[in-house]
Write a structure and sequence with these properties.
One of its GO terms (molecular function) is ATP hydrolysis activity. By secondary structure, the protein is α/β, with parallel strands linked by helices. A seven-stranded mixed beta sheet has the order 1-11-10-4-9-8-7, sandwiched between helices. Strands 14, 17, 18, 19, 20, 21 and 22 form a seven-stranded mixed beta sheet that branches. It folds into two domains: about 190 residues, Rossmann fold (3-Layer(aba) Sandwich); about 260 residues, Rossmann fold (3-Layer(aba) Sandwich), CATH 3.40.50. The C terminus is likely disordered.
């Protein structure tokens, strides 16, 4: 199967549900989207593909009314329409599951869902949430507070909120990036059922095997323009990736692990209570991560991975002896003190946790590097007062990260929120790797990045480990785990199974362990 040219007609019959007609979007001197045209029909599952920064999210934000096109427009069932706002899009029949969650952390699940729906008694809405979530395999308690949910659980709330609107067109922007394979497959069952009932699905994902399994049509963007259309079922994932980036996709460079190095990060019976009524307590967690290795922590969302990351990063404190960094007790230390011991951390939620959207990239870099990268002036006071930061050095360091990890964004020092999700992810991971820490803990390192960027990030993690660092990767992506990990441990209900060499692990055995079986049962 060869790709159709960008100008070739889709070759399908029937009136489109939505026509995107020559849409462009400019932000000042930057053209984010240029003359994009494609159609979606009722019941069709249509992929919108492209590398990070290709313009996918900008296109769907215009369809959803969050942005207005600079040129071009839309037609709904053949009639020209102006989509002035998300409320207008929802009234028309368009629902959207955002890549970056549009939720209020202080509200409950039911209260967040209620904001997008016509008013109804909360008790009735809670019943509907339970019914829909159970029916679609996306179980969630409507009374839980959003701040207490894992990233994967927050994604479920976004999906449920859309399903309750009974949309005619459902836009999914990276919906499975934080879901396990089992959760993703359950979502696909939902999407196939919706399309059988006539709902169109516009699907954005960097997981190209998912696209091949789910979608029957694809429009491919590169640097804001349509470059090709195809039936993804008739192409390999590699061919799709190469069409997206216009070049070959490199494999992860993974040299053999050296002889085990010294223990650089250790947990000694780490036990912490749940931080809230719906959180997960950590129970007698022990591990040793050695220099030279990548140690992966696998598990279903909500099993204690977020709490483990908080305990490793210093956001949650424990007895001093429960966490050791290069042999030094660190359990009672905060994040800055642990960074001064040579550790680095990259959390799963890039917006608000790893980066502040309203701050420039250099300012975001200074937030995590001010005490360890030669950026602070004036001693302790300089670390507390932004005016004492060496901003020239911060901007230079930020530029190094952008160049090394191909972080694309407008201007020399853009705000974090102006970057696409994948480009911000590359910046967050890159700023930690370029510090060359002795210990690096990353949570979902390639969430929302394209195939080329994922390979580059994974290669950088392996290189850092082979240079002598201990790298701990918390991930729900089993392909990622098997690609880079030297040993794998499984998180389940706040406990961590002993790590096993990757060579002794299969996907089936790992799935059994994630489901709750012990090591003996998994090996049987």
């Amino acid at each position: 199967m060869t790709l159709e040219s960008a100008s070739a007609p889709p070759g399908r019959t029937g009136e489109p549900l939505l026509d995107v007609r020559g849409v462009s979007k400019r932000f000042g001197a930057v053209t984010a989207v240029d003359d994009v045209t494609f159609s979606i029909r009722a019941g069709e599952r249509h992929a919108l593909l492209g590398e990070n920064g290709a313009g996918k999210s900008t296109v769907v934000k215009m369809i959803y009314g969050s942005l207005q096109p600079t040129a071009g427009g839309f037609a709904w069932r053949g009639e020209p329409v102006s989509i002035a706002s998300p409320a207008a899009a929802r009234a028309m029949g368009v629902g959207m599951v955002h890549q970056h969650f549009s939720v209020f952390e202080a509200l409950t699940v039911a209260e967040n869902v209620a904001l997008a729906l016509p008013r109804e008694p909360m008790a009735a809405l809670a019943r509907r949430i339970r019914e829909v979530s159970a029916s679609y395999g996306l179980a969630i308690d409507p009374e839980r507070s959003m701040h207490a949910l894992s990233v994967g659980e927050k994604q479920r709330v976004e999906i449920i909120r859309c399903l309750l609107q009974q949309p005619k067109l459902l836009i999914m922007d990276e919906p499975t990036s934080v879901l396990t394979p089992q959760e993703a497959e359950a979502l696909f069952v939902v999407l196939r059922r919706l399309s059988d009932e006539g709902c169109a699905v516009l699907y954005i994902s960097h997981r190209l095997e998912e696209v091949r399994a789910l979608c029957s049509a694809a429009t491919i963007l590169r640097r804001g323009s349509v470059v090709a259309r195809c039936d993804p079922r008739e192409m390999t994932a590699r061919a799709l990736a190469e069409a997206m980036i216009g070049a070959g996709v490199g494999a992860v460079e993974r040299t053999p692990a050296p002889a085990p190095g010294p223990v650089r990060l250790a947990l000694r019976g780490l036990t912490l209570p749940a931080s809230d009524p719906f959180g997960m307590a950590l129970r007698d967690v022990s591990l040793e991560a050695r220099g030279g290795e990548v140690l992966a922590v696998a598990g279903v969302a909500g099993e204690g991975q977020s709490e483990l990351f908080a305990a490793l990063s210093g956001e949650a404190r424990s007895a001093a002896s429960m966490v050791e960094i290069d042999g030094r007790p660190a359990g009672a230390l905060g994040p800055t003190a642990r960074r001064l011991l040579g550790a680095a951390f990259a959390p799963e939620e890039r917006n608000g946790h790893a980066a502040v959207g309203e701050m420039r990239l250099s300012e975001n870099l200074a937030l995590s590097h001010h005490a360890v990268a030669g950026l602070a002036r004036g001693g302790a006071l300089g670390r507390l007062l932004g005016g004492w930061i060496d901003w020239r050095a911060a901007r230079a360091w930020s530029a190094r990260v952008r160049e090394a990890f191909d972080v694309r964004g407008g201007g020399e020092d853009p705000q974090a929120r102006s970057l696409s999700g994948g480009n911000l992810q590359k910046f967050v991971i890159g700023r930690e790797i370029l510090r060359e820490p002795g210990v690096l803990v990353v949570n979902q390192p390639t969430w929302g990045v394209d195939a080329g960027a994922a390979a580059a990030i994974r290669t950088a993690l392996v290189r850092l480990a082979r240079a002598g660092a201990a790298v701990v990767v918390v991930s729900q992506d089993l392909d990622e785990i098997f690609e880079i990990a030297d040993r794998i441990a499984v998180m389940r209900r706040g406990a961590l199974a002993p790590a096993a060499p990757t060579a002794e692990m299969t996907a089936e055995r790992l799935g059994v362990l994630m489901g709750g079986a012990d090591a003996a049962e998994a090996a049987a």
